[in-house]
Amino acid sequence: MVIVDGAGEGGRASLLDRLIAKADLMTSGLPVWPTTLAIPVAFLLPPLVLVVGEKWFAGVALAISLLPIVWLALWCARAMHGWSHPYASARWLHAVRGVVGDEAMTGLLVDLDLQHAREPDHVLTRREVIDSVAVQRRRAREAAARARGVSLRGTGAAS
Predict the structure, then answer these.
(1) What distance in Å separates the CA atoms of residue 159 and residue 145, rounded to the nearest whole number?
(2) For residues 136 and 104, what is the distance between their CA atoms, to the nearest angstrom?
(3) pLDDT digits (tens, 9 = 90+) for 76-114
(4) Domain ranges of the chain
(5) If you placed Cys at 88, which of 115, 118, 120, 124 could pair as Cys (CB 3.0 to 4.6 Å)?
(6) What would the DSSP string read from start to end of 28-72?
(7) Model-level pTM?
(8) What whole-number distance in Å separates Cα of residue 18 and Cα of residue 34?
(9) Where are the transmembrane segments (predicted)?
(10) 14 burial level (CB within 10 Å; 0-12, 13-18, 19+)
(11) From the CB of residue 11, how many other CB atoms can be counted at a distance below 10 Å?
């Protein structure tokens, strides 16, 4: 597997590229809070607006009710863009390197290279990189928990 850095040696990815890479690394499924907020807001705000009867309250209620819908629309647009661009480009990998750091990215690429050692023409997909970052982060959390050890304060054991 050969990675060609599109920004050049030592170049820094743009802020927009890093934000997109960070969003890709953070989102794994449908966002929970807009979905759970949109349902009660859709049913409770219209009767509340009728009871209060103030124009300013209706405007605020409309803005609050549209926020989760806009959030979900943006999430869906981002997911569809990811479906239409499944492969990890050099620019996107460079942005991921800016998000996770050089050491983590090197370890990630070595792991992926070992996984696909028998496939010399394998092309990385964004999903493979995202899953590998998630595995790497989980390993780091578990190692940190093992390093801390088990605290007897929260277990209820008398000392």
Answers:
(1) 22
(2) 8
(3) 887 787 788 888 888 889 999 989 988 889 988 898 888
(4) 27-84, 86-148
(5) 124
(6) -SS-HHHHHHHHHHHHHHHHHHHHH--HHHHHHHHHHHHHHHHHH
(7) 0.62
(8) 24
(9) 30-50, 56-77
(10) middle
(11) 11
